[in-house]
Specification:
Helices cover 34% and strands 16% of the residues. By secondary structure, it is an alpha+beta fold. The strands form 4 sheets. It has a 6-stranded mixed sheet. A 3-stranded antiparallel sheet has the order 7-8-9. Bound molecules: glycine (GLY) and manganese (II) ion (2 copies). The site of one manganese (II) ion (MN) has 4 residues, from strand 9.
Length: 432
């Protein structure tokens, strides 16, 4: 694989270079300088939170942890990578990998956190506020020009063969973690031990995951971004939801699976199977030209059918949607763009750069675009029993079968999530 990967990376860099050069000509910049960013110590302390470099920097350079570093793209010479490599006996010195991509850059190792020499007519892109706050000198140049950033974001939404290879590999590694998490749940482990089994099998430390893994048992499965790991196993095991990822060269997998526990009602397992079928039907309809808002609405039609088929709702499909019932049972969007950021850029714009915000009745939708080949997206339908969202419905005469809903409350909820690349004639599922 690595020969293919390096060849694909070279083609990816060649294409990026010509796209950046066109943008420099269009907007009349001498160069574009991408700042990787840096972590800031906790207040009053010398300890740092985990860090990921700015997405546009990682789009070129797979050093996704590089801090205080710069990449400067010129119209007529190789890009210059100013890589921060302090003389530091407290830490392992920065080393460049022995990989062919390095030869595409003029690399300067910098012992100090510098700002490179730039002309007034350079576009400087990155977390300039953090640079200023850290006392970093801001060179001449134009900081974060809107039109250019939109154009750079647009370059990120269509993935190259290199990026798709990285995303596929991130998925393969993450799935090993998901299998181990499922086995740990079957072995009656607690949330923390399931997380540790996931990390071990996916070969990563916790600070390297692309987002905080969501490992929720029972009602925690209904907390959309559940953020803790219980250290003891509950007596009753109804459910486990694992939403957990992996990076590969900075590219993120974002996969969710929900598992039935021994104490769940039989209906819960039937609903998990139904939600897999919903996911697979939505994926089967992916092809260039699909409007993602319409597909999100199709998810709500599917959810209404699932609720009616399983006797959770005794009204019509139209009523389940019009009365906001499916939204109370699934308050998040169908999916989002995926890349060097787990929620990748440019999801809420049209291809020509116009703002395309989420519809008013679906405010959490992060992707409103028409699908085109090369986009990588998640498809993640869910069905949850969230007390806060169901409470207002309980005071209505809507024909919700509360007896069944109450039996399912201890299960928390269901989400299933795959990562998909749109191809010229349909789609390819990257999640094994
Ligand atoms: N893991 C966050 C998400 O699925 O969007
Ligand atoms: Mn997820
Ligand atoms: Mn997701």
């Amino acid at each position: 694989m690595s020969e293919t990967l390096h060849r694909q990376h070279k083609a990816h860099l060649d294409n990026l270079l010509s796209a950046y050069r066109s943008l420099m000509a269009q907007y009349d910049y001498d160069s574009i300088a991408l700042y990787s960013g840096h972590a800031t110590p906790h207040y009053g302390d010398d300890q740092m939170p985990s860090f990921q470099a700015f997405g546009h920097f990682v789009h070129w350079v797979p050093l996704w942890e590089a801090e205080h570093s710069w990449l400067v793209i010129h119209p007529d010479k190789r890009p210059t990578l100013y890589l921060y490599a302090p003389n530091d006996f407290w830490h392992l010195p920065t080393m460049l990998p022995e990989e062919p991509w390095v030869a595409e850059f003029d690399v300067q190792l910098c012992t100090d956190a510098i700002t490179p020499p730039l002309t007034d007519n350079t576009a400087i892109v990155g977390d300039i506020a953090a640079l200023r706050a850290s006392g970093g000198a801001l060179a001449n140049g134009q900081a974060n020009p809107d039109a250019l950033i939109q154009a750079l974001d647009e370059l990120r939404i269509i993935k190259s063969d290199y990026e798709i290879t990285c995303l596929r590999e991130a998925n393969r590694l993450a799935m090993a973690g998901h299998e181990a998490a499922h086995a740990a749940f079957a072995g009656a482990c607690c949330e923390l031990d399931i997380q540790l089994a996931y990390l071990a099998a996916s070969r990563q430390r916790e600070s390297h995951t692309p987002y905080s893994n969501i490992i929720g048992m029972n009602q925690h499965a209904g907390v959309l971004h559940y953020q803790y790991y219980d250290v003891s196993a509950p007596k009753q095991r109804y459910s486990l939801l694992v939403d957990a990822g992996r990076r590969f060269r900075g590219y993120s997998a974002d996969i969710t699976r929900t598992h039935v526990g021994p104490d769940a009602p039989a209906l819960f397992e039937a609903l998990i199977n139904a939600m897999h079928a919903v996911k697979d039907r939505l994926i089967a309809s992916l092809t260039p030209g699909v409007d993602f808002i319409a597909l999100h609405e199709q998810m709500h039609h599917e959810l209404a059918e699932v609720m009616i088929d399983h006797d959770l709702f005794r009204g019509s499909r139209e009523a389940a949607i019009a009365e906001g019932i499916t939204r109370a049972f699934c308050p998040h969007g169908l999916g989002h763009s995926l890349g060097v950021q787990v929620h990748d850029v440019a999801g809420l714009r049209t291809a020509s750069g116009e703002p395309a915000p989420a519809p008013e009745n679906h405010p959490a939708l992060r992707l409103t675009r028409t699908l085109t080949p090369g986009m990588v997206i998640t498809i993640e339908p869910g069905l949850y029993f969230i007390p806060m969202l169901l409470a207002p419905l309980r005071n209505t005469s809507l024909p919700i079968n509360w007896t069944l809903v109450d039996q399912l409350m201890p299960c928390g909820g269901i989400r299933v999530e795959d990562n998909i690349v749109i191809t010229s004639d349909g789609f390819h599922n990257l999640t094994p």
